[in-house]
Write a structure and sequence with these properties.
Serine Threonine Protein Phosphatase 5, Tetratricopeptide repeat; 2 domains; mainly alpha; 8 helices
Length: 161
């Protein structure tokens, strides 16, 4: 429940209080590993740290979240954490590591047929290409991202039968 409070406060933009609640939640859940709730809390702690401009802490939280999701068998959780981690690594100028995690997220997204994950991974790959001054590759990756986000939007509006 405390992790959810952290998530809620994060969405409100109150990053410090979000971090406080996530820290309390992690202290309790840490001994229950592997546990999805612990991994989720790590994700929101990473997001709060990123919001507080503590990118190194965000990276560490998301790396731990990847480990926890893998231990719990959550491909979805691992893939979203890799997207987050890739974004933080891009912000730190660590494009080689960012590319590794974006490509892994893309592979996991493809395995799940998850257009949203794939779109996010392609977005990060486009940003990396631009950072590397490879604008044609950046454009190609951006087009792939857009195609996946459009696919995801179409999937959401189709009637359920």
């Amino acid at each position: 429940m405390m992790g959810l409070a952290g998530a809620f406060l994060f969405r409100l933009g109150d990053y410090q209080r979000a971090m406080d609640w996530c820290t309390k939640s992690m202290d309790i859940l840490e001994n229950l590993r592997p546990h999805i709730a612990y991994a989720h809390t790590l994700v929101y702690a990473g997001a709060a740290a990123f919001g507080l401009d503590n990118i190194e802490s965000a990276i560490n939280y998301w790396k731990k979240a990847i480990e926890e999701y893998r231990a719990a068998g959550s491909i979805w959780g691992e893939s979203t954490s890799r997207v987050n981690l890739s974004e933080a690594l891009i912000a730190m100028g660590m494009t080689d590591d960012a590319k590794t995690h974006a490509l892994e997220a893309l592979s996991l997204g493809n395995k799940m047929n998850n257009a949203e994950i794939m779109g996010s991974a392609f977005t990060n790959l486009a940003l990396i290409s631009v950072e590397e001054k490879d604008f044609s590759e950046g454009t190609r990756r951006a087009e792939q991202a857009l195609a996946n986000f459009q696919k995801r939007a179409t999937m959401r509006i189709l009637p359920i039968r």
